[in-house]
Amino acid sequence: MAEPILEVSGLYKHYPLTQGVVLKKQIGAVKAVDGVDFTLDRGETLGIVGESGCGKSTVAKMLVNLEKPTAGSIKYRGEDVTKLSGRALKAVRRNIQMVFQDPYTSLNPRMTVGDIIGEPYDIHPEVAPKGDRRRRVQDLLDVVGLNPEYINRYPHQFSGGQRQRIGIARGLALRPEVIVADEPVSALDVSVQAQVINLMDRLQNEFDLSYVFIAHDLSIVRHISDRVGVMYLGRIVEIGRDAEIYDHPTHPYTQALLSAVPVPDPEAREQRERIILAGDVPSPTNIPSGCRFRTRCWKAQERCALEVPPLAVPPHLRLLTGPAVHDSACLFAEEKQAVPVGEAPDDHGEGSP
Ligand SMILES: Nc1ncnc2c1ncn2[C@@H]1O[C@H](COP(=O)(O)OP(=O)(O)OP(=O)(O)O)[C@@H](O)[C@H]1O
Ligand code: SF4
Ligand SMILES: [Mg+2]
């Protein structure tokens, strides 16, 4: 039986929009995250995809307690992290670490690699006594495929891929159980992306890690994820095992996203139908009523403006079996012809970039 390590329910983050300098009056809210639910099982990777601005990073920040939710709960091993404070919160935070997108800006240029990777030990000295830190940091460098002798070098002396390895080593320093990786390879060259993904794959087995892996590149997410959630305007609109989402999507938004993924095989490319979405993503300050995707959906009907489709197996699919039967927040969810999505290149081996 799979055991959930994280259970997220009814998660909201609304940033108030105010007017006036002295008497700040709230005139609305940026609904960055607007009702997100998912579970993460032990040892699994949940991919989260969606267009820019849909709220992926805000979810990530709430998971690692860099942002406080407006509402909702985040349970780690059954305990609601959002209700904890002081020592109890610190103990939980140790177990959920983040790896950031941009290895160029997320590392302090004036600190040595040894200080960067060992910094979490300042907050949690119980994990590594002072006299033992250097050895631990060198072990971590070795684990992520960097020469332990580089411990006194500075970030600018490394390539982009190497810097992301440093970011991963820092994420591992406290031996967490969950890693939230927010676009960890988006800033890297394609060939280096594969190496970092393969490294993360290996570390997952070695350290028994569970990952929340955020990206906008659908093929990369498929390569690493066991399950995938698709976000639109602050909410997950479809979620399931990777083959269910990639080969049997039932939500029109997922179908449109997949239809835009480059396909290397010219024959497959010719066969598929590219779905061009109408209009722009609405502002998160003004989310459409009913189904939030309706202003861009080619299947929208009157009902879609009145009813909010829940993220669940749609009633009309419940009696069926097969991969199209999974959670999809669409009143008219149905399988379209599968759109083949190539996996990310993985034949480069892990090697050092
Ligand atoms: N501190 C803040 N105050 C107000 N609005 C914010 C704040 N942080 C994020 N937002 C808004 O919330 C929405 C979601 O932002 P978020 O960074 O989570 O999106 P994202 O999916 O990570 O996008 P990207 O793919 O570009 O990284 C955006 O409209 C953003 O402008
Ligand atoms: S509920 Fe209606 S508008 Fe929303 S995705 Fe389904 S068909 Fe489109
Ligand atoms: Mg982001």
Automatic annotation (TrEMBL):
<dbReference type="GO" id="GO:0055085">
    <property type="term" value="P:transmembrane transport"/>
</dbReference>
<keyword id="KW-0547">Nucleotide-binding</keyword>
<dbReference type="InterPro" id="IPR003439">
    <property type="entry name" value="ABC_transporter-like_ATP-bd"/>
</dbReference>
<dbReference type="InterPro" id="IPR013563">
    <property type="entry name" value="Oligopep_ABC_C"/>
</dbReference>
<dbReference type="InterPro" id="IPR027417">
    <property type="entry name" value="P-loop_NTPase"/>
</dbReference>
<dbReference type="InterPro" id="IPR017871">
    <property type="entry name" value="ABC_transporter-like_CS"/>
</dbReference>
<dbReference type="GO" id="GO:0005524">
    <property type="term" value="F:ATP binding"/>
</dbReference>
<feature type="domain" description="ABC transporter">
    <location>
        <begin position="6"/>
        <end position="258"/>
    </location>
</feature>
<dbReference type="GO" id="GO:0015833">
    <property type="term" value="P:peptide transport"/>
</dbReference>
<dbReference type="Pfam" id="PF08352">
    <property type="entry name" value="oligo_HPY"/>
</dbReference>
<comment type="similarity">
    <text>Belongs to the ABC transporter superfamily.</text>
</comment>
<dbReference type="Pfam" id="PF00005">
    <property type="entry name" value="ABC_tran"/>
</dbReference>
<keyword id="KW-0813">Transport</keyword>
<dbReference type="GO" id="GO:0016887">
    <property type="term" value="F:ATP hydrolysis activity"/>
</dbReference>
<protein>
    <submittedName>
        <fullName>Peptide ABC transporter ATP-binding protein</fullName>
    </submittedName>
</protein>
<dbReference type="InterPro" id="IPR050319">
    <property type="entry name" value="ABC_transp_ATP-bind"/>
</dbReference>
<dbReference type="InterPro" id="IPR003593">
    <property type="entry name" value="AAA+_ATPase"/>
</dbReference>
<keyword id="KW-0067">ATP-binding</keyword>
